[in-house]
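Holo model, pyridoxal-5'-phosphate. Inputs:
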Amino acid sequence: MCPGPSEVNPEVFLAMAKPLVSHVDPTFFALLDQLQGQLKTIFQTENICMLLSGTGTSGMEASLINFLEPDDRVLVGVIGHFGDRIRMIAERIGCNVKVVSAPEGKALDPDDVEIAIKGFSPKLFACVHAETSTGVLQPLEDIMNICKKYEVLTLVDTVASLGGVNVPVDSLGIDIVYSGSQKCLGCPPGVAPISFSPRAERILESLTPRNYYLDLRLIRKYWLERVYHHTPPVSLFYACNKGFDLIIEEGLINRFERHRKIGLALQKGLEAMGFKLVADKNVQNPVVTAVYLPAEIEDIKLRKILLEEFGIEIALGIAQLKGKIARFGTMAESARPQNVLYLLSALENILK
Ligand code: PLP
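Output:
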């Protein structure tokens, strides 16, 4: 029950056991077409969709290096560790980066974003939808509308939300969006779904990224025109094909509702036990729950007991929250009532 990797359905593992074909085999090309269709459904978009060979961070890096050049103005919404990683990568590219932030446990205030956009005129605004380090789910609608009003390109990290929380890319008007396979998508780590709008594609045409491996123009040429660029992780693509099928079979709305209910049950249970949630109630993410630990509970000891005595894996605080919090994931196959009940009763046993 750590916030990724989540538990993987055995059918997904079985799919990975299929014999390998080459990345230029006609059946593999057919699989690429299927994956694109599945991703369009899951991202709720008509935009181009692909899988990158790499974890969520490869999606983050590709989303920045392919659309930005040194000196470009970039506004980054930072509400935790992963927003800060976006800032860091944009700075490495040599962009002129400005940060808009929010206090711990809170989401970005759209008014702050608007003021920053007015004063800074960025080319791109980037933020994280589900900030895994705090359990905050950033509401996107108002912020995306502000970006639309000022014609700012938008980039959203959905590594910890896609497949568990609604991410309607087209109706929100997100230009560039990426995710990771190992969280709410319920697949093993190693693949990053990515999608970008025609407006973003026009920018893509106008620059050559310094990074060859994550060059989206070349990767797009492979996905659409079958021109070899690199050998993708064939077995992981089989896994995603199965994992995405399971998501579509369950139905996006049913799946979001399952995650919502399970997250709420866990949060209510933790609060009833006296824990304080890190995220404000109105922006609490259903799939990642972070709680402050009272001074008498040592985080590393808690994790060790849960793992060794109860077989439950959890995550602890990172960056500024190191040593202060515990984090629980209720994602994909891990979002089941029995998991919540078992975790709560284990915690009760440890704390009594
Ligand atoms: N963005 C968010 C919101 C994340 O939670 C993570 C990982 O936990 C990442 C990016 C980085 O993904 P990865 O560890 O798969 O590279």
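Residues 55 and 297 are 32 Å apart (CA to CA). The two ends are 21 Å apart (CA to CA).
Archived with the compound record.
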